[in-house]
Design brief:
Elements (H helix, E strand, L loop, with lengths): L3 E6 L5 H12 L5 E6 L5 H5 L10 E5 L5 E6 L2 H13 L3 H9 L1 H8 L1 H17 L11 E5 L3 H17 L3 H14 L4 E7 L3 H16 L4 E9 L6 H7 L4 H10 L5 H30 L5 E5 L7 H13 L5
Parallel strand pairs: 1-5, 1-6, 2-4, 2-5, 6-7, 7-8
Antiparallel strand pairs: 3-4
Length: 320
């Protein structure tokens, strides 16, 4: 399995939740994962019910088998200071630039630079080794920007390498792209069984392929249970008002005639949803990508729900 797991998805599909559950699922049997946030929303901290993440790698969870999940919220300003120190040894001069507001100015007026810093920091974590020569993390999971922006976000270093044809910036951009366009990386897309997210997923897959970025899996999130079996779904698509009323009477239900209308409406809505979901599954299967499914959990995912989702992913083979 690829060591850099990039998770994207249309807004509202739960990509941050999926990224967090994936990090937990991969951190089994003593493995270490780093969960990276790049959008500054502190969504990871909320999911793991911990305080806001600083610009440092902090352990936030322990997985079954003694594995550990660390998290990092990348601050573009501080990442730029790291970058300047790494390549130009600015030291105190870099801190002075920050005090003057030059760092904030640079990352604000040049969004491409911001993305270079974010992807570079994640790739550095992927490549980093400890004193024994082993990778510091078995997996790095990135909660990445939404599907509509993911290809440009990951491909920005290609543009930078073309602009800066020599020197440390050129070399760094090339090093990042060697990771992002290699089997070390997999870009996963999160969707719901709804028309717009599925279409955006299909478009995202096409864009990633065109940019020669490695596409991973599709995670179908918030799957709702099917209350009716296939025969009942077919029956609900037709109006069997009299038969339902008779069945309620035989069952001893009082006021059965008043219940018939609302019951049939709900059944018909359910049947319609099942049919729409079936159509979207067909579209997703046409993408030819492996897929995982995660259930809808109540009205929101807390830490217990996150572990439940991670367990579901492990059941489906993630991390094995």
């Amino acid at each position: 399995m690829s060591r850099l797991q990039v998770v994207s998805g249309k807004g509202g599909t739960g990509k941050t939740t999926v990224a967090a559950a994936l990090a937990l699922a991969l951190a089994t049997e003593g493995r270490r994962t780093l969960l990276v946030e790049v959008e500054g929303r502190q969504g990871i901290a909320q999911l793991f019910e911990t305080e806001a993440l600083p610009y440092e790698e902090r352990r936030i969870a322990v997985a079954p088998g003694g594995g550990e999940v660390y998290a990092l919220a990348i601050d573009p300003e501080l990442a730029l200071l790291d970058y300047l120190q790494m390549f130009y040894k600015l030291g105190g001069a870099g801190r002075a630039l920050k005090k003057l507001g030059a760092i904030d100015f640079a990352t604000t007026i040049a969004p491409g630079l911001r993305d270079v810093l974010l992807t570079g920091k994640a790739c550095e974590a992927v490549r980093r080794k400890n004193k024994r020569g082993r990778y510091s993390y078995d997996y790095v999971v990135m909660d990445a920007p939404p599907t509509g922006r993911i290809t440009r976000f990951l491909n920005v270093n290609d543009e930078v390498a073309g602009l800066a044809r020599i020197g440390p910036i050129h070399n760094q951009a090339q090093a990042v792209m060697r990771v992002l366009k290699s089997p070390e990386t997999a870009v996963h897309l999160v969707t719901l069984l709804e028309e717009m997210p599925v279409q955006e997923t299909a478009d995202g897959v096409a864009e990633l392929h065109e940019a020669a970025l490695p596409v991973g899996n599709v995670f179908v999130n918030m799957i709702r249970p099917h209350i009716l079996d296939e025969e009942a779904v077919r029956a609900a698509a037709n109006d069997h008002r009299a038969a339902v009323a008779a069945a309620l009477s035989r069952a001893g239900v009082r006021g059965g005639k008043q219940l018939v209308g609302p019951l049939l409406e709900q059944a018909a809505e359910h049947a319609q949803r099942v049919e729409l979901e079936r159509e979207q599954r067909t579209v997703l299967s046409g993408l030819g990508l492996p897929s995982y499914e995660l259930p809808l959990i109540g009205e929101g995912v807390d830490l217990a729900g996150l572990h439940e989702l991670a367990t579901e992913l492990r059941k489906q083979g993630v991390g094995s």
